[in-house]
Amino acid sequence: xxxxxxxxxxxxxxxxxxxxxxxxxxxxxxxxxxxxxxxxxxxxxxxxxxxxxxxxxxxxxxxxxxxxxxxxxxxxxxxxxxxxxxxxxxxxxxxxxxxxxxxxxxxxxxxxxxxxxxxxxxxxxxxxxxxxxxxxxxxxxxxxxxxxxxxxxxxxxxxxxxxxxxxxxxxxxxxxxxxxxxxxxxxxxxxxxxxxxxxxxxxxxxxxxxxxxxxxxxxxxxxxxxxxxxxxxxxxxxxxxxxxxxxxxxxxxxxxxxxxxxxxxxxxxxxxxxxxxxxxxxxxxxxxxxxxxxxxxxxxxxxxxxxxxxxxxxxxxxxxxxxxxxxxxxxxxxxxxxxxxxxxxxxxxxxxxxxxxxxxxxxxxxxxxxxxxxxxxxxxxxxxxxxxxxxxxxxxxxxxxxxxxxxxxxxxxxxxxxxxxxxxxxxxxxxxxxxxxxxxxxxxxxxxxxxxxxxxxxxxxxxxxxxxxxxxxxxxxxxxxxxxxxxxxxxxxxxxxxxxxxxxxxxxxxxxxxxxxxxxxxxxxxxxxxxxxxxxxxxxxxxxxxxxxxxxxxxxxxxxxxxxxxxxxxxxxxxxxxxxxxxxxxxxxxxxxxxxxxxxxxxxxxxxxxxxxxxxxxxxxxxxxxxxxxxxxxxxxxxxxxxxxxxxxxxxxxxxxxxxxxxxxxxxxxxxxxxxxxxxxxxxxxxxxxxxxxxxxxxxxxxxxxxxxxxxxxxxxxxxxxxxxxxxxxxxxxxxxxxxxxxxxxxxxxxxxxxxxxxx
Length: 760
What we know:
alpha+beta
C-alpha cells in the first residue's frame, strides 16, 4: 500500500513537472521564420518613422554681436528647418522671416535653387538685415522688402555658443618653442644637439651647452618673460614602435597594401626630458633638481606674478598614481611641490583640471582626494588648499573661471537626491565655496549655451522618456524669460513604440544604486517571455547609459525583433564616487559584471516578460572586450555574445588608455585578465567582428583571440570586414549581429538574404 501511494505521488510530481515545463515552453517567445521576417520589416519601418520625427534635443542659438537677440533653427521632419528670431530682453519669439519669400528672392538673384526649408547659412546683422554666402559671393538681404544684393563686405559676427570658454589642455601636446627672445634681441638655435645663443645685432654666437649630441640633443626651449633665462630640455629619444595591417581589397590592385603607424602599447619606452635653466647673462647652465619627465612631454610653464625667478609646471607620473605642480627656482635649479597628490589606485589624468591665476598666484584644481571629484583653490606660494565645492556628488566639468568676480562656472551631477545621479546640472560658485547658484533646477539632463556676454543662456533638458524643453533664462539669477520649445511625446507614441524605461537596482554591496535603461518590443505579448540582450560598454573613462530623450536607437530596433534590450553602468565606470570608479583598477575584466547581473535579475523580478535564463550581450571596442569577457568569466549567466573590434588583451591595445586603468609597469594581472589567455573557458556562443583597417585597436587583438579559440578547439563565428576601421560592422555587421541573436536566443530562422534579387 505504501509502495502504491509512493508510486502515485511520483507520477503526480512527474506530471506536474511535465505540465510546468510545457507551460514554460509555451511562455517562451518562439517566432517562426515568417514572424522574424515580419519583425525585421516592422522594426525597419518603426525606426524610419521614429527618426523622421524631430526631437529637438539641441537648440543652438545664433547670437547677434550685441547679445540682445538670436535666431535658431527648429528641426522639422525630413531634415527640414523652421526659423525663429528671439528678442532676448523681452523674450518675444517670432518667425525669423518669411522663408518662402526669402528663398524665392535668393533663387531669383543667385540663380541657385533654394528651399525655404533648407536655407544656406545665414548671419543676422540686426533684426532687419542678414548676410549669406553662395559660391564665394556674399549677399546682403534687407528683410523690410526682402531685396537681395551682392556685397563686397564679408564681415559677419561668428560666435559658436557651443564652444567652451575654457579650452582643455592635452598633456600629449606642449607649447612650441619660440626662438626669438621676448625683447627681440637674441635668438636660440639647436645646433649639433646643443643650445646656441645668437645676438641678433652683433651676430655673436655663444654655445650654452656642450654635452648635447645628435642622439641625445637639447630641445623644446622656452624663454622667461624678461628674456634673461632659457628653459630647455635634454632629450633621451625613444622610438615609438609600429603596428601594421593589410588592406586586402583596394580597388584597382591585385596585391594587399601594407599599412603601418606608430602605436605605443603598455610597457613601451617613452622619450624623456631633463629640464635645464640657462642664464643668458652669465651663460651658466643649471640642471633642474628634479627627475626627468618620462611621461607625456614638457608641459607649459606658469611664471609667478611679478617674478622671473619662479615658474611651475605639471607632472603626471607614468602609472597615473602621482600628480604634481612643481615650482622651479631658475637661479638655483631647486624645486618644491606646490601640489603633490598620490593615490594607491589611479588619478584620472584627463580629468585633472588646472587654471592658473597669475595676478593672485593661485591655482584652481580638481581632485578626488576626499572621495569625490571637487574643486580646490590652491595658494601658489604656500601650497595651502581650500575646498571650493564639497559633498557626495561629482564636479563633471568646468565651463569658465571669472577672475574678477572670483567665481567658477561648472557642471555637476548627483547634488539632487531625488533624481538620477548622472543628470548634468550647471552651477556657479565663489572661490570661497559660498554663493552656490543652480542655473538648471528642473529635473533632467541639461545642456546650456550662453550669449556672447553671458547675460543670457538657453537651457535644454530632457530624460530618455521625457521630451526636451528649451528655455531662455537670465544668467544673473536663473530666471526664466521665455520657453522656446516644448517637446511632445504624442507623435512618438502614435507610432506604437514603447519609450525606454529607467530601472534602478542595488549593486554588489547591496547599498549602491546601479542605473540603467530598458527597451521593450512595441508589440510585446504579456503572456510571453523574451530573451534579454545587454548593450555593454564598461570603459572606465566615462558613463554610458543615455540620459537625453531617446525614442529611437539601435537598442530599440533590436528590441522590436523580440528581445528586451538593456544598458547599464556598473561599478568601475566614471561619474560617481572615487570608490565606485576604483573597482576597475588593475581589474578591467571585472567590467561591473556583478552589478550588471544583479541589476538584470532584479529587472526580471519586476518585469516577468524578461527571461533571465536567456541572456545575450554585445559591444564594440572596450565593449567588445567586455562582451567576450561575459562569456569567459560568467558563463553561468551570459549565453551568447557579439564582440566587435574588441581590445581582448590590454597589452595589445593603446598605452595611454590601458596604463591609466591597468597600471604600470605591466604585471601578471594583464595576462590573467586577457580574453586571449582565457579563451579555453568559452562555453557560450560567440561572434567576433573585426575591421581589417582598425587604427584604434589593432586587428590582431581579435585575430589572436581567434587563434587561441581555435587552439582550444572552440566553436565560434568570426567576420572580418575588408577596409573597415574601428566599428561595430556598419549596416552589414549590425544585421549579422541581429541574425546571430535570433538564431542563438530565439532559435529561429532569419530571412534568407541571398535569395533576394539584387537591386538593379
